[in-house]
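Hi everyone,

Forwarding the result from last night's run.
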Amino acid sequence: MQLDDIRAFLHMANSGSLSRTARDRGQPKATLSQRLRRLEDELGTPLVSRSGTGIALTKAGRAFVPHAEEVERACARAHDAVAGLRPSDKAELRIGVTEQLATNLVTPLALQFVRDHPGMLLDVQVMPASRLFLKEVNLDCMVCGGLPGIEDGADLVARGISQYRRRLYAAQDYLSRKRMPTGPDDLKDHELVCNASGIDKARWELCFEDKVFTLEPSGPIRTNDDWVAKVCVMQGQGISLFPDFFAQEHVKSGDLVEVLPGWATAPTSITVVHHAHRFANPYIRTFIDFFADRFDGFFCFPYRSGDVMNKQACR
């Protein structure tokens, strides 16, 4: 059996689609079909059944999956066992990060890391949180807000780094035209830039001491991207909710004003996550330790290395 055939099969099993697997792996469907047929010929039985909507595992395919996963883990452990014996200039790490944290957190620290470890290659992959923990994405470690779900986290170890909250912000120009809200009930009289993912309704849940206020924001612009929301707010479109580190520099300059100070979402943890069986890899350990030791806050304006929001302010 060839390892690449086993990996292609696992990718198909997880995605449920030959077309999606081909797209994710950057390979022609014909190549993947050939790999699957070769594996089935060696095992002497079909592993998948094809339909118009995708592929489904046969009974033999379902039985083969855990053994195929163990083969893949064993190969990773074997690779990691000798990783430290290779020169560091041959080492490569594939880091996954959510869009929200890529610019203001991971990129500046990645630059520091490669400067301190010349010759090492960091492959920083930015992707939605929904893809971050998929096995077929094949990441060495992941940086995200919050913790993996129960299904995603079965084979993962998470190390907490810090936390942040989301707060309400508006531009001075907008507040000069509209009265500053004095309580959360006043938000219904304002233009709100909605942050939401997909087709789900946005729902803001704000806390202040022992009080909780929930709101489904409405307005002429809705987005799933904090950069879009901040641009809208900076240009006086209304009020929006985004991470405190994302607005700190603009608050200091006076371009943005925090609305309803003290009201904020519950804290979100920043975690660095890796597969439990990969911690023998010294380069993964080195990166995670570096990330934890060097983190001193979020980079509010990440084009300048000095603009960092101290981590004490993130509590």
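Confidence is low (pLDDT under 50) at residues 301-315.

Cheers,
N.
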